[in-house]
Amino acid sequence: MTHTLTLPGADPAGADAPGETLRDRLRADTREAHEALDARFSPMMAGDAGRYALFLLMNRDAHAAIEPLLSASPLAGEWRATGRLEAARQDCRILGLPAERAVPAPPELDAGTRAGALGLAYVLEGSRLGAKYLLRALARAPARNPFPTHYLEASSDAGPFTGLMRAMARESFSPAELSRSTEVARHTFRFFGRLADEHETAGPLGS
Ligand code: HEM
After folding, report:
1. What is the pLDDT along the chain (207 residues), one digit of tens a residue?
2. How many alpha carbons fall within 13 Å on the CB side of residue 125?
């Protein structure tokens, strides 16, 4: 499945356009990275078990590395873990996938400032929107996709993302802080891709 995201107001040339929100900017600046992930994982919608396994491993390792950063960030208290990591672990166990290694987050995922933490949380929590979509799509063909879906189920409540977007809308960041936020978000997408690369290089994950 290759779909184009709906990106209202996401013209990168209009980064300073009046009315453009931080979310608009984050969405525009990470659009290419998101579409690359989307294309990479689209075969799982057609029942590709190896690709679904890779999706779970990538998400498990990403949550394991990123959640502690957010818990210790200026967003602590507003951002809370909601069981997505445990759910990813559960699906990985059911499928007998490789055990978790502690993959440290790269220093570029700097959640030390509120702007940086929001960029990081935008990616982790925004993936809920995709999860909701994927869960619905997999449920349409359960015979073709007999996959455990604890992670997608735990991820398909968009509420925490909406709350985060509300908090984001209350910020009035300087241009430097805006850039910081989008830079961290871009690095976060790259980190997801790198985790998938590493698991893919390690060997076949299913048929
Ligand atoms: C097969 C995998 C994926 C699919 C099919 C997918 C699909 C989608 C869809 C349909 C949306 C909603 C777009 C809209 O309402 O305008 C979305 C949003 C989003 N997804 Fe994904 N997604 C996938 C994987 C991921 C992953 C792994 C991440 C994180 C690394 C991610 C991050 C985001 C973010 C941040 C948004 C919010 C964009 C916004 O600001 O509206 N997605 N995704």
Report:
1. 333 333 333 333 334 456 789 999 999 999 999 999 999 999 998 889 999 999 999 999 999 999 999 999 999 989 999 999 999 999 999 999 999 988 999 999 999 999 999 999 999 999 999 999 999 999 888 888 899 999 999 999 999 999 999 999 999 999 999 999 999 999 999 999 999 999 998 876 654
2. 25
Q: How far is the CA of 11 from the centre of ligand 1 (A)?
A: 18
Range of the domain at 35: 21-200
Q: Kindly report the protein residue whose alpha carbon is nearest to atom 34 of ligand 1.
A: 126
Is 116 domain-assigned?
yes
**b/e per residue, 155-180, with b = 16+ CB within 10 A?**
bbeeebbeebbeebeeeebeeebbbb
Q: Which atom of ligand 1 is nearest to the CA of 192?
A: 30
Taking CA atoms only, the protein residue closest to ligand 1 atom 7 is: 130
* Any domain includes 111: yes
For 105, phi then psi, to 5°, come to -70, 140
- For tokens 């850039």, what's the residue? 179
Overall number of domains in the chain: 1
Q: Is the residue at 15 inside a domain?
A: no
- Residue 89's CATH number: 1.20.910.10
